[in-house]
Amino acid sequence: MSTHSPSYVPKSAGAKWLESRLPIIGLVHSSFVVFPVPRNLNYMWTFGAILMIMLVLQIVTGIVLAMHYTANAELAFSSVEHIMRNVEYGWLMRYLHANGASFFFIAVYIHMFRGLYYGSYKAPREVLWILGVIILLLMMATAFMGYVLPWGQMSYWGATVITNLFSVIPVVGDTIVSFLWGGYSVGNPTLNRFFSLHYLLPFMIFGVVLLHVWALHVPGNNNPAGIDVKTKKDTVPFHPYMTVKDTFSAMLFIIVLSWFVFYMPNYLGHADNYVPANPSVTPSHIVPEWYFLPFYAILRAIPNALLGVIAMFASIAVLAFLPWLDTSRVRSGSYRPLFKMFFWLFAIVCIGLGYLGAMPAEGAYVIWARILTALYFAHFLVFLPLLGLLEKPKALPNSIAESVLKKSGSGMPQGAAAKPQDA
Fold first, then answer.
1. Which of the four, 34, 176, 386, 411, has the lowest number of CB atoms within 10 Å?
2. 217 among annotated binding-site residues
3. Burial of 69 from C-beta contacts in 10 A (0-12 / 13-18 / 19+)
4. In the structure, what pLDDT confidence band is assigned to residue 410 with cuts at 50, 70 and 90?
5. Is residue 390 part of a domain?
6. Is 212 labeled as ligand-binding?
7. What predicted TM-score, i.e. pTM, was given to this entire model?
8. Per residue, what are the HEC states of 31-69?
């Protein structure tokens, strides 16, 4: 960013001693207190802080649950029941962890769609965006393995279906499946592998999140206007301006999470997972958790198994190439009339795929899944590249301060509107 934070000056003798040896207080001060942020950030920019809170919540509750969980195919289901019935506040830890996973994905999807709308993936924030995609992949792997751990009917058969997908990969597919299973079918070795990885991956996520925050602090925050910081008037200190917003949003988010935890804790789960795993009885309709449903719909929309798996993984991988697929020189969707329409079409497509992922793979559901899958990939591979060439964006404000004054109706600085700037 064009403005720099004043350095931290310790006052007490103890603080001076620590700062000269391990300047961690200075790092926090420069990164989260006086760090300049664009003054026009809205509440959509608070989901980064919410995600950090949710990650810490998942790690803490997960560690507590791991103390009482037994990673054994014969005992896993009963150990979960033991946590629910006999461990003091075990029910609270489990419901916080299970519903926390869903709310973690709610927050991350809102965070992503905000980035998509305001062009937060464009230069110089490409690495920041790619790290976010990596975090999403790690989250999905962690959530899938965690869903297997209760060892209920949906856990067992979900693990069987998803791990079998790797068998369609030529040459190495069967080897990968055998490694994941630890044998020739989903069983005790599979559960042990998944428990180990489920425990490890959140700490990997935390490490990538630190890189994500670091990558954010190099160019600074994007903003709703999508223009660069030019003067000190364009920014405010992170504290108290963003800390107050972050705290308020986090409190509202936790209140909603608490509603689910205390009043409808099983609403986002599946009833079949309260039945012990039975390899001899297949559930009538095997579905993953709701946050996987759009990708599950893409998988089932392709009639060829290998192409379906490729399409499913490509639907996530294509996000990493977004900074180069979007050819527009304007970041913010607020100044791109055509992009706005295609963005909301894309949002409807994602919701539609989520609905179709929960439906049986038959009849009109499959046809619509294929149509929406085509539109999903067309958004990235066709619409965005063409919009950058054909769309005529609105004129951008001269500065962030000007955009704030214009929005508040307090008057505007003199000067004509700026030309669309480079990303």
1. 411
2. yes
3. buried
4. low
5. no
6. yes
7. 0.93
8. HHCCCEEECCCCHHHHHHHHHHHHHHHHHHHHHHHHCCC
